[in-house]
Specification:
Length: 106
């Protein structure tokens, strides 16, 4: 399986300029979109203020690559929230079991 962390860039700027309510609407919209992309029985959850965690149980590299491409495609266009078109750039990190570690700590 793989564990992904997906961080939304410029989130504090969005909160500062457009308000926390708009920022939270953005988080909810991105979270819903991520949940629709990730095939069952995998999981997506909000991990921190501007970060999501995703667990992807996979059998091959092709599924991981396809899922990452679909995630990145979510951010190709601006996201419309509260009358604003917001450009968001994600940063995605991945750790794979057992290649990158054999315990939760590693």
């Amino acid at each position: 399986f793989s564990v992904f962390l997906i961080q939304l860039g410029r989130f504090s700027e969005i909160n500062s300029t457009l308000g926390h309510d708009t920022g939270e609407q953005l988080i909810r919209k991105v979270g819903k979109s991520l949940t629709q992309i990730v095939p069952a029985p995998n999981a997506v959850a909000r991990h921190a203020n501007n970060m999501f965690a995703m667990v992807l149980d996979h059998g091959d590299d092709a599924l991981v690559a396809q899922t990452v491409r679909r995630i990145l495609a979510l951010f190709d266009d601006a996201i419309s929230i509260a009358g604003f078109n917001i450009d968001v750039t994600p940063t995605i990190g991945e750790a794979r079991y057992p290649e990158h570690g054999t315990s939760a700590r590693t």
